[in-house]
């Protein structure tokens, strides 16, 4: 420790700091430069500045042997914090007289003496400046304590001018923000990380402070949607803090749900426009033919055109029912589930299938089938969807088998085809809305990807479950189970 403060070096260095401020620099770069100037002038082993907020303090700048302390917190109820905020504005203390974790680390590293000067504005403490000295050195002089007090006042003046400070600033307003909020320096290193930021990113403040921002930083005033490695989406905005400083404030929030909804909306529009186009085109074509060529068409041709129009209209109505049902929160059932005749429901549903599916379907039912608890009308829809799905993914002349059975707790029916089968990794994905195994622009199989999604919704709302599995010999088995009466 030098006998006297090096005022020449201090004044020269302080002049350079003022020139930094005049040229537009502010905030942490200026604060760090001030500490670098003060350390040798005071003969200190290290310098540190603690910024205070209602919840406590945090080291936001440090040099020399104290540089490792940056980001370390000082809780409001910590004895060191209480000591620093009380008593004389400038005081000399020993770190080995305190028992908190930070003081213990300082002492263990040989930094056992320090001069502390509070930075105050109108009696309100915004921070404290610390000059740290090694063990064995003499007690800091009154001259050195006076310089620390002076520099603390200079830093308080920076706060009063809002020159990129405060940095920590985790007051009740910032802490209560629902959106993540960070303050970063010119190198995009984090200086402030509010509780919502930790919650949104899963990165606690201790791991974020003084580290690079864990996502891209958009230009000031612009918005960026960014996907995290775990698949979640953030919407990020940034702006310059008031004053000529280089600090920027960044806000961000999780928009994964919105992204998913937007994706489903776009997919909904794409799929429905594709699937609606075919029946509408066919209906219009046959209707135009009947209108323009009625007299020249034979009676059988007219009947065939009317039959095709009717079939395509039925397909269109069924597609619209699917779309509306997929958007509804609840399937329109007939009140609470009740016992019903599953065998009779299956027979009636098979009779209502389109002709080309009905001729391929075989129905095998046991002589006695217990009654399940559910909605008869909706189960007919389930069967129709499963048989339609089986027909779509199998050869036009292959059979589709429908069977039923029961155990002690459930009643079930199965729809088995001899088609392309289902891959194990697709067994669950097949029930996702709009999902298809051969999705893309060149799909071999038409459809919206809503059939199995609706089937699962209907069945689960009746306390049942549905699943797929490969059929022995090739193809797929879809099985529906409902609670037994």
TrEMBL record:
Keywords: Kinase, Phosphoprotein, Transferase, Two-component regulatory system. The keyword Transferase applies. CDD domains: HisKA, PAS. InterPro entries: HATPase_C_sf, HATPase_dom, His_kinase_dom, HisK_dim/P_dom, HisK_dim/P_sf, PAS, PAS-like_dom_sf, PAS_fold. GO terms for biological process: regulation of DNA-templated transcription. Residues 271-485 form the Histidine kinase domain. It catalyses: ATP + protein L-histidine = ADP + protein N-phospho-L-histidine. One of its GO terms (molecular function) is phosphorelay sensor kinase activity. This is histidine kinase. It comes from Micromonospora phaseoli.
